[in-house]
Amino acid sequence: QEAAWLKSIYSEKPALLERPASILPRFDQNDKRTLVQELQMSSIQKDFCFDELESIIKIKHAEAKMFQSRADDARREAEGLKRIALAKNEKIEEEYANRIAKLRFAETDELRKQKFEELQAIERAHHEYLNMKMRMESDIKDLLSKMEATKMNLAM
User: Fold this and answer.
1) How far apart are CA 131 and CA 137, in angstroms?
2) 107: which DSSP letter?
3) In whole angstroms, what is the distance from residue 87 CA to residue 109 CA?
4) CA 154, CA 156: separation in Å to the nearest integer?
5) CA neighbor of 24 nearest in space, from 14, 32, 12
6) Is the entire prediction scored with pTM above 0.85?
7) Alpha-carbon gap, residue 57 to 51, rounded angstroms
8) How far, in Å, are 63, 80, 141 from residue 132 at the CA level?
9) Nearest to 51, CA basis, from 43, 39, 61
């Protein structure tokens, strides 16, 4: 009887046992399908993210190159402007030196003219002095000769 009893229980229960066993594989298959789909979606999203990141990196590299080229251009332009400024400054210094030299030349020329006029005035004064000296000498000689003549006239 035990075997019959076991058989009857066993014969009733296998339907219950088979049912969960058949449900679980389907659940596993559904779960596997959704897991595979999620992995595929995740893989697609990762690929999309990687592609997006790569494109962002490429854009940033392009921006960096653009800014570097702009910086290089600005540096070259600044160096050119610096050379121009130095050349203009040098030219201004030369013009300033020339103007100063011309002013000094004009001042020197004016000073030379003043000194020449002073020299001429001194020469005129000296010439007048010599003329006056000669007149005085001649006047003194005349006076001495007259004194001699009067002395002789008185002595006689």
Assistant:
1) 10
2) H
3) 32
4) 5
5) 32
6) no
7) 10
8) 100, 76, 14
9) 43
Q: What is the DSSP letter of 1?
A: -
Looking from the CA of 8 toward its CB, the CA atoms found within 13 Å total 4
b/e map of 94-115 (b: 16 or more CB within 10 Å)?
A: eeeeeeeeeeeeeeeeeeeeee
CA distances from 116 to 64, 122, 123 (A): 75, 10, 10
Look at the chain and count its residues.
Answer: 156
| Average of per-residue pLDDT across 72-86 | 97
Name the helix (H) or strand (E) containing 76.
Answer: helix 2-155
∠ at Cα 25 (21, 27), nearest 5°? 110
Query: Tokens standing for 117?
Result: 């006029």
What is the CB-side half-sphere exposure of residue 64 using CA atoms within 13 A? 6
pLDDT tens digits along 123-145: 999 999 999 999 999 999 999 99
